[in-house]
């Protein structure tokens, strides 16, 4: 069953590999875990629902405590602290599970007529507070799209698939695979997040280099709003005015509920492999990565770990004997201390894959990359969606782990990366605490790339103090990001946690443009208020 | 010097090749030209400027007749008829040529304070009435960005170039070429259209398959609005809410004046060639084209002419002897009557180009394509921007030529193409007139492509009747496009001519979204009113 207070299936546990605990203890000290609250205890705290008059909707809306607990929070670190401590604060007053567009329309009518706030809910995997109720003195109805999870239509000629917006990653792919297709959208949250959520939060998947971000995959669809139904026709490209798709992408529930997504799909590839190359230092590694993408070499995935992430990944890989052999091999070829690991994917027809591989290896070689084949790449592919489970294992050991991510122009990458890492690494110094901080670049563009930084720190003696530590790290570093040419988020969206930083990034008139849309579609701010913007 | 009443430089004339006139006469009859009005006659008709109090702005705003004539109309067929007949109707009351952002701000302040309407003007190449003044009882100031035509900044690492928005195609490319870069945006209007105009009208270039549409090339920039300056930061990609760039793209002057464009550029390619393949019939040709793009073969350009366009192009190619040899060669290989010509470009490193060419030829062969090398492709490349001059030559012979274009999903391409061609071919039957109609597909996407249809008809005895013929063809066929799954424009924008068809395509709520933006930025509808939407 899905964990009510953490990531994923509660039957699946990922152990910290041999030596992992020592590795962390050496860097930031031994830790001890906080006590977790039980589901029963939290359910006992859930107050009466404030939803008025459910006449005719009682089959659709569930107000029992457990479902309200299970839809109260996402997966951000503050969400974890809230769920683990049991101090959740506000719960939705009910959870609706519509199965049809007309049921969604009924729910919209209900909230309009009864002065209720509504939060659209996809997979509940937000790490930025998208789906948390806020206290504005109104009842809150959370609407989960989980029952709208089918492949509704498939147009093979146009390679378009229509899905219910609540379809989670594995069901998207399995329903397409049966017909020989893939969407190719693989965010880290793939196991639980939904296609509608990807659109609403402008998600990006690990293979965006081939398949594109969700912006490129979202061809059109259906959005139920308080003003009626918005149907966005599928047109491959158009010069007919501003693009309505792009107003829905990233709208985070503020304009309406996305109920159907028409997505651009691809034939399953004939060939796919992930290759790993080590570079002697960051400068060569980063330049090689930039050249690969600026030279338009057809890769399906590219990820470049900095030296600390490389060291951390090798330390946590398990199999210390084999890793030690690998490091000797690399060292003999010039990739020693400070080495950086690059993983890249080649996907397509066999002809394309072999041509791309040849081109990519040539560029890597120019920057002294040591090619190690596909063994480590296969490992990455195998574990690509299980990483969030590591958070559970670390939590049980007393370590909190979170990530911060942005995207910026190439010219700015090193400067911003350095500032982010320093801010996170030194942020807890006055509390005599350390963080272990490491970074990779991913989602590469000719213009720049995403910087994805992970930080691990010890939980404090109390939940409240742990939250303070997180808040300090998160807020100071987020401010640094937007003040230094980065976006507040490349792939996690805005939610409530990033909303304060939006005006710095978008400017007053940028915010005016977004507000013009939300005000026009939802003048009374009933839909997901305070998410994205006030 | 630039023609005041037609396309391009008046020293450059393109002759109809040998046999061209007979070819048309055989199909739609002999024609005779209408009399053109002179520039002097039109200047004499220009009324007094209605612009109030030019205190402090008289250096910036020119109210003399000739400049007002030269900025009164674009390049649509009704614009041609207006200019050729001298019945232009409304002229702008003055033309401003600002050189700086602060001058643009001054002009905005002026129109705001003096109840004047403002039309932003790029290259004046609109074929949809974007820059034509309309009579709303207010003085009209046209603001040409022509003096803002410099490369302002170049970031080599991030491959970003900042241009003044009025920079025309050749100046974009020549300023970049000096540094070893290209933007790669080559619309048919390249010679005159500007980078700011491309953004404002969501333009697409002939090599969009490699470089992307202007949406992919526009990284950010500066827009002067009545509410202040909107600066869009350059961020490679972001999940921070709806994308402001995408609200400016296609805004057609309704939100403000784009003054600076930051564009994503590419190193000049090592290799570029255009290859031509003939297919025995449309079905095979269209399927091959679809496969090429759906298999993600790295091409830089793809264009597929239907049988009538192929026949027309070969007839108008000149060199009838050589063409006859070519046709014998093709016929022996199965591409005879009904054959369709495909042109594709391969661009990139030599390795990439040879890999792509190999992959592309393999697909073409599967569908019985007869490869003919690069000779015809080089001809296409050489003449790619001179085609608009042909219009002048045809006009002098008494033929009017126009194009209609859309984009639709693959599943719908044949059906819509057939409807468009039939509508244009039969539209003048009750006037006992014929049109010569032919089509190519271009701008290919996994999901679909652009349909680009050219139609030639004889001018009538009068300008008024010629305009009536055009109106009938244009409006009936435009209605067919939006009622049958096409966009009202894939690459020409909306302007005033396509505005009536927008609500059918976008729906009531789509229009609400766009209107929310225009109302927020320009509540009094001072900027380019009636363009895009009311």
UniProtKB/TrEMBL annotation, chains A, B:
Co-factor(s): FAD
Keyword match Flavoprotein: yes
Active site: 452 (proton donor/acceptor)
Domain FAD-binding PCMH-type: residue ranges: 88-268
GO biological process, one term: lipid biosynthetic process
Record-listed E.C. numbers: 1.-.-.-
Name under which the protein is recorded: Putative FAD-linked oxidoreductase
Organism of provenance: Marinobacter litoralis
